[in-house]
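Re: the 171-residue chain
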Amino acid sequence: MRRTHLLVAVVALVALAACESPKPAGNASDTNVASLKSAAPSASPESKRPRYRLDMSDDDKEALMEPYMKCLEKHGYTFLDAKKGGLAEGGEPGSDKKSQELRACELQYYPLVEWERDPANPRAQDFQRAVTKCLKAKGVKMEGDAFTDADVAKGMDLTPECEREAAATLK
């Protein structure tokens, strides 16, 4: 599989997971965007689901998944069961008991996408444009929002830095 396809797959999974994000509470004039300093671990006052942050390490992300994994285990399932059911990517559950139990675990514990990437965030598109602009300024060649084949590695290396810069400028 080419790296571009891998990147597209990762972006698609993040986007699908974001589709499950509840709309944040607050008024329409609230334009604060979560940043490295302000990103809260929960989704909104109504939701207890954890939320990934841009500054999380792989260990932090793994720890955030622990309650979800424990919920699956409690019901006798694995993450593979959830993925097969399409639930971990925002799929619709069936009406059988297994689907309902998997869905209950997801709705309670599956981490939400970073606020900066969440479609419920009115400034998410601004964030993505700022990241793309930063990458291009650093010499990464792109076709639309995707890296060219020659610049996939460079783009992947520079993306976290550009995300931090974009989050800081969009506070």
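The two ends are 37 Å apart (CA to CA).
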